[in-house]
């Protein structure tokens, strides 16, 4: 289950974009080996709101494009596929028979700015940021060059499947 909560009023979110996000998330999770019911929350905010969350949660007083708050914890260098692929989830791991993966907070205002900056559509930027965050929820990171290369490769593979390319 994917919950989308739009808490900003600067950019109108089209129903088509929400449906595309749901398909992208579902596809990404299945591609990464998730075979049980899940829950992901996506919160759309503006720059001011994400700045406040960034300050409160990370101690960084500036706006950002997207924040990911994973609920699962992974051994260093491992992602969901490595850590949980053969793991038998117990009832206490689940909430109402769903695996809670975490939350994504995305500034639509920042996504629009970055789409213009990188010369591609708003929709492409939102989809990229969602996939980027989903991969974070699954344990991917980009702090080390090797990890970053793997994460970027997965992002592009998923976006390519939906023909969401840089324009």
UniProtKB/TrEMBL annotation:
<comment type="similarity">
    <text>Belongs to the endoribonuclease YbeY family.</text>
</comment>
<keyword id="KW-0963">Cytoplasm</keyword>
<keyword id="KW-0255">Endonuclease</keyword>
<dbReference type="InterPro" id="IPR020549">
    <property type="entry name" value="YbeY_CS"/>
</dbReference>
<feature type="binding site">
    <location>
        <position position="132"/>
    </location>
    <ligand>
        <name>Zn(2+)</name>
    </ligand>
</feature>
<feature type="binding site">
    <location>
        <position position="142"/>
    </location>
    <ligand>
        <name>Zn(2+)</name>
    </ligand>
</feature>
<keyword id="KW-0378">Hydrolase</keyword>
<keyword id="KW-0479">Metal-binding</keyword>
<keyword id="KW-0698">rRNA processing</keyword>
<comment type="function">
    <text>Single strand-specific metallo-endoribonuclease involved in late-stage 70S ribosome quality control and in maturation of the 3' terminus of the 16S rRNA.</text>
</comment>
<dbReference type="InterPro" id="IPR002036">
    <property type="entry name" value="YbeY"/>
</dbReference>
<keyword id="KW-0690">Ribosome biogenesis</keyword>
<protein>
    <recommendedName>
        <fullName>Endoribonuclease YbeY</fullName>
        <ecNumber>3.1.-.-</ecNumber>
    </recommendedName>
</protein>
<keyword id="KW-0540">Nuclease</keyword>
<keyword id="KW-0862">Zinc</keyword>
<feature type="binding site">
    <location>
        <position position="136"/>
    </location>
    <ligand>
        <name>Zn(2+)</name>
    </ligand>
</feature>
<dbReference type="Pfam" id="PF02130">
    <property type="entry name" value="YbeY"/>
</dbReference>
């Amino acid at each position: 289950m994917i919950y989308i909560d739009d808490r900003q009023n600067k950019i109108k979110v089209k129903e088509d974009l929400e449906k595309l996000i749901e398909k992208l998330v579902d596809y990404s999770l299945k591609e990464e080996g998730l075979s049980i019911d899940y829950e992901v929350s996506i919160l759309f905010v503006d720059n001011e709101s994400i700045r406040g969350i960034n300050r409160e949660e990370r101690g960084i007083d500036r706006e950002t494009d997207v924040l990911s708050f994973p609920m699962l914890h992974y051994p260093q260098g491992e992602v969901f596929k490595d850590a949980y692929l053969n793991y038998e989830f117990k009832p206490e791991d689940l909430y109402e028979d769903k695996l809670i993966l975490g939350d994504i907070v995305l500034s639509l205002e920042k996504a629009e700015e970055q789409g213009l900056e990188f010369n591609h559509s708003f929709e492409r930027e939102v989809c990229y940021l969602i996939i980027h965050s989903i991969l974070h929820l699954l344990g991917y990171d980009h702090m080390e060059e090797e990890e970053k290369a793997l994460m970027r490769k997965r992002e592009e593979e998923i976006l390519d499947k939906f023909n969401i390319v840089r324009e």
